[in-house]
Design goal:
The structure holds 2 protein chains of 2 kinds. Chain A has 7 helices and 3 strands; from the N terminus they run ααβααββααα. In chain A, helix 1 packs across helix 5. Chain B contains 4 helices and 7 strands. Classes of the chains: A alpha+beta, B alpha+beta.
Chain lengths: 112, 158
């Protein structure tokens, strides 16, 4: 749970920036080189590379270097972490209801 | 109810409705089930009335507490229904809780064997929030303000 939460935090932090979301959207159309990507965003290459590294560190993209060209690919399974939030909320509410039920069904055991 | 965003839960609880209500509205009892053990729950505010605050904290060691929930009750029908949202915090300030804001509606009704307990949680749309940010919300407001200024100035010039 703590592990899942830390991973989800990383993904959400990575997505909490318009440039990085732009990169994700662009990579949704297929793998692209860093050079091509960088041209689409109005900033210096070092600044852009910081965003690429954040995305890579949090597992949202993978990059492969071939010669002098680095190609970025979207890691779709990682994005699925974001989609799983509803399942997580369901689990929280179900377990919460289990605990409430135990408390009120066996009051002498659990109540002060 | 939107199946992509909301969740429903129904449970027959074999206890009287008054007891279930008490477990929800008595801070000492709520603290016993609100978060999973061994995490310790502290109920900081439980002002069960429309507009009342609902604030809980949690702790691993029982000494240092971290925020857990900061919400407001929207509707309270005695012994029947509780609705609260974390989209408005206990100070009535609009909030953006993670992962998405929600409104929870808890309904209690009598059942021959106890209480029919129903939960409906309506969530905001995380994709919508991301889209909102993508479209440059700040820029949008900037241009609206510019338009307003333009209209105001043209009126003032008359």
């Amino acid at each position: 749970m703590a592990q899942y939460s830390a991973e989800l935090d990383g993904v959400l932090i990575a997505l909490a920036d318009p440039t990085r979301r732009g990169v994700i959207r662009r990579l949704g159309r297929g793998p692209t080189t860093v050079g091509e990507l960088a041209r689409e965003f109005p900033m210096t290459l070092p600044s852009f590379m910081k965003h690429v590294r954040t995305l890579e560190t949090n597992g949202l993209i993978s990059t492969v270097k071939s010669g002098r060209v680095r190609t970025c690919t979207l890691s779709r399974d990682r994005l699925a972490l974001v989609d799983d939030w509803l399942a997580e909320q369901r689990r929280i509410w179900t377990e919460r209801t289990d605990r409430l039920e135990r408390l009120v069904t066996y009051p002498t055991e659990n109540r002060p | 109810m939107n199946p992509d965003l909301d969740l429903t839960l129904e449970r027959l609880i074999r206890a009287p409705r008054t007891v279930v209500w008490q477990a929800w509205t008595d801070p000492a009892l709520l603290a016993k089930w609100w978060v999973p053990a061994p995490t310790v729950c502290r109920v900081d505010r439980l002002d069960v009335r429309p507009g009342g605050g609902f604030v809980t904290s949690m702790s691993d060691d029982g000494v240092e507490f971290a925020p857990h929930l900061d919400a407001s009750f929207l509707v309270v029908d005695d012994l029947e229904r509780i609705v609260f949202t974390n989209a408005i915090d206990s100070a009535w300030r609009p909030a953006s809780p993670a992962p998405v804001p929600m409104t929870a509606e808890i309904t209690l009704s009598d059942h021959p064997d106890g209480t029919d307990y129903r939960i409906l949680v309506r969530h905001g749309d995380p994709a919508a929030r991301a889209r909102h940010a993508d479209l440059g919300f700040a820029d949008g407001w900037g241009s609206v303000t510019k338009q307003l200024a333009g209209v105001a100035e043209s009126l003032a010039d008359r």
